[in-house]
Write a structure and sequence with these properties.
The chain has 414 residues and is an alpha+beta fold. The protein has helices at 23-39, 51-58, 64-67, 90-97, 123-137, 152-160, 169-176, 181-204, 211-225, 285-302, 311-316, and strands spanning 45-48, 73-77, 83-87, 106-109, 145-147, 165-167, 229-237, 258-267, 270-271, 274-280, 337-340, 347-351, 368-376, 383-393, 396-399, 409-411. It is globular and about 70 Å long. The chain has 2 domains: 23-176, 3-Layer(aba) Sandwich (Creatine Amidinohydrolase, Chain A, domain 1); 181-411, Creatinase/methionine aminopeptidase superfamily (Creatine Amidinohydrolase), CATH 3.90.230.10.
């Protein structure tokens, strides 16, 4: 098992009396990783629309309503500095407050808001013409352009103007999979915030409260503690536990329910995915048995975590889909599961029987990922869900998620 010594989660502020997150060092590390990935590829440049890749390379962020509208984009050439096109006045803000970007590389941009402005308006044609000119200036116009995600009309316009497009998402995910000391501290701080929210949930988890009220409580507490985005809170109880719906409802919590929650938020961009399961007032032998199995599967996978182990070896200790009631691994995907954590919720490595047996990835020191297990109870409706966030070190696994989960916790026992 992992060391009992917790990883540091020192707080939100920079101070003069402790070494905490060094954001300059963080920015330099991320850009260097992206540049190294570009240099090792066939590409002359990366054109990035994925807003986590944009943050990783430009160290800028717009979340919420504008972050995923396929309007922001960044260009990174082999020997150049990152260039950014952002939503309207955000570009002027970057020139004032993001000195690691050259002012002349901060542009206002608009492509169409996911089709709301039709391609016939010419915004995409103009943007591609500008990008092609910049690639020519950088001497890489004849090399492939790596693109991570893209709207079809923009891709077609790039091809119409003679640019050869290849996939950059795999290269950027390669760059992002090894976390620096600053990234690890931010991930740990994000997990520590959820530790505290689970204490609040345990105290509130009584008959008569609704799932959506728990979701509201978690959102409120996380934003009060400094979260910059609460991406999702799943709240699942009673007969909704099996099969797992991956959402929340307005269901009233009742005595004796089994209830599980998943809290997904970010602190300075770095995410959690953190399940815990509770009994409400009491628990049954069937519920406890399901929890014990889920815990055993979890511990078996954690005990394997070290550099050099293949993700197929980790997935192999989890039950096959047919062993817990599903027809195949696709139908059971996400229940016995591992996924990298960082600026994105699902990074490398992805660990499951669906993909890892055919194409395993070797674990490396510096990877951070979540491991998830799920076990339906033999009562036909309850289920247990456990998740731990793990850092791979040369000495084995270190656990970021510290709210008690070795045994089923009963909230407000009668």
């Amino acid at each position: 098992m992992a060391s009992a010594s917790p990883l540091p989660a020192p707080g939100h502020m920079g101070v003069d009396y402790e070494q905490r997150v060094d954001f300059d060092r963080l920015r330099e590390y991320r850009l260097a990783r992206a540049k190294a990935s570009l240099a090792g590829s066939e590409c002359g440049a990366f054109l990035l629309f994925d807003f986590y890749n944009i943050r990783y390379t430009t160290q800028t962020w717009i979340g919420g309503a504008l972050g995923d509208k396929m309007t922001r984009y960044a260009l990174l050439t082999r020997d150049g500095e990152p260039m950014l096109w952002d939503f309207g006045s955000a570009a002027r803000h970057h020139r004032l407050h993001s000195p690691w970007l050259r002012p002349e590389d901060c542009h206002a941009g608009m492509l169409g808001l996911r089709g709301a402005i039709a391609p016939t308006a010419g915004l995409m044609e103009s943007a591609v013409r500008q990008i092609k000119g910049l690639l020519t200036d950088a001497g890489v116009a004849d090399a492939p352009v790596g693109v991570d995600i893209v709207e079809p009309p923009f891709l077609f316009e790039m091809q119409r103007q003679g640019l050869r497009v290849v996939d950059a998402q795999q290269l950027m995910l390669d760059a992002r999979q090894i976390k620096s000391r600053d990234e690890i501290m931010l991930l740990t701080q994000a997990a520590a915030m959820v530790d505290g929210v689970y204490q609040d949930i345990v105290e509130a988890l009584k008959p008569g409260i609704r799932e959506n009220e728990i979701v509201a409580l978690a959102n409120k507490r996380l934003y009060e503690m400094g979260s910059d985005q609460v991406e999702a809170v799943n709240a699942v109880s009673g007969e909704r536990c099996n099969p797992h719906p991956h959402n929340f409802s307005d269901r009233l919590i009742r005595p004796g329910d089994q209830a599980f929650f998943d809290i997904i938020h970010s602190f300075n961009g770095y995410r959690t995915c953190y399940y815990r399961t509770f009994g409400v007032g009491s628990s049954t032998p069937s519920q406890r048995d399901a929890y014990t199995k889920a815990r055993e599967w979890m511990d078996a996978s954690i005990n394997l975590i070290k550099p050099g182990v293949g993700t197929d070896e980790v997935a192999a200790v989890w039950p096959k889909a047919e062993e817990f009631g599903f027809e195949n691994e696709m139908a059971a995907f996400g229940l016995q599961f591992g996924h990298g954590l960082g600026l994105g919720l699902h990074e490398r490595p992805i660990i499951s029987r669906l993909n890892s047996m055919a194409e395993p990835i070797e674990l490396q020191a510096g990877m951070v990922f979540a491991l998830e297990t799920y076990c339906p109870a033999d009562d036909g409706f309850s289920a247990a869900r456990i998740e731990e966030e793990v850092l791979v070190t040369p000495d084995g696994p270190r656990i970021l998620t510290l709210f008690p989960a070795q045994d089923l916790v009963v909230a407000n026992a009668y």
